[in-house]
Amino acid sequence: MAPMRGERGGSPARGARPSLPLPRKLIRQIARHVASSGRSLRRLEVSGRVIDNFDDIDDPSDESDMEVPQATVACGGNAGNLPPAEHDDDLTSLSWLQDRNLLRGINLTKGDVEDTKMIGSQVVIKSEPSKTPSPVARMPSPPRTPCKAPPSPPAVAAHTKPPYSFSCLIFMAIEAAPARALPVKEIYAWIVRHFPYFKHAPQGWKNSVRHNLSLNKCFHKVAAAPGLGKGSLWTVDPQHRASLLQAFGRQPIPPAAPDTPPPAKNAPDPQLFPYLARRLAASPPPAPTADEYLAAASVLTMKYGPAVLDQLPPAAHLVISRCVRDEHSYSGGCEERRTAEALLNLAGVPPRPPPPAPS
DNA sequence: GTTAAGCTAAACACCG
DNA sequence: TCGGTGTTTAGCTTAA
């Protein structure tokens, strides 16, 4: 029988481990990710540095995270009334980030893997029996010139429902607005602009947006601006901002990577589960968009404080800094950047200075 | 098994 | 009258 959640398990030696630069839960999530391909995590490296060896971290019944000294997690940068990271039990979002390769560069090494191959910044874990790269562990490399080639794949995203709830979409739209307030029509437009899926989605999604605005206490209607015509302006209630930010951490896990199709026997019957079937049918998943990178940075920061960003590999820093540098290539500022700034500011992350220009 | 959250659909009223 | 907006209700699925 598996131990109850919170029960201590595993070897006693774990308690004597050195401080981990990443929360143990995050490492466990990575271990599960590796385990999903039939492997087990034996060693973890971050940015080329061996963090720890552990033989039992892939035990799915082990839910303890008491070994993580909070001091190493540095939550002091949480903005405003954000809840402390230790209150958040849910790392679903992090599995999403891993699935989306947003934690690329974290070097996973399996004990019985004899070689970890680096191709550029792409990490390939070689499987001993088959000598073929693990489809799960194979991480695509980030753009070589991330500042020039932001990963915005509208052609793919057009067919993929974004992994955000409507409240998150509305939140992002409003936060991206200069006045932090938008009429419903502009919220529609922002969503369509950033998630082309909705361009051809059934009309019901607009109803869902309005339903969300009306029902969700996080959104408030304010007096209509003169000349606005029908409708009101909608804003985010500052008191509920933290809960909306937390909602980013509860996003559903998107479909598996294109080269790891789920077993057909697990495919939901579209007749019985139309919603789930539609969600899962939206594969292959698109490459992460700039907004997803930003959401990833924000989620990580919200959970563990800004210091966690310094524990991520340089590739992640590139991803984050890219959006700041993009500021210089846009005239007047794009909504993506505003979204980025809003999210990162809310998460307490100061903008990273652009790297020095090559001489 | 229960509960909460979220999605979808539908109906209705209000307003420009 | 029409279409957009806002509200409410109900049923469903999923995750905790």
Automatic annotation (TrEMBL):
Sequence segments annotated as region (Disordered): 1-22, 128-154
PANTHER family according to UniProt: FORKHEAD BOX PROTEIN N3-LIKE PROTEIN (PTHR13962:SF22), FORKHEAD BOX PROTEIN N3-LIKE PROTEIN-RELATED (PTHR13962)
Ranges annotated as biased composition (Pro residues): 140-154
Record-linked InterPro entries: Fork_head_dom, FOXN2/3-like, TF_fork_head_CS_1, TF_fork_head_CS_2, WH-like_DNA-bd_sf, WH_DNA-bd_sf
Protein name: Fork-head domain-containing protein
GO CC term, one of those recorded: nucleus
Entry keywords, A to Z: DNA-binding, Nucleus, Transcription, Transcription regulation
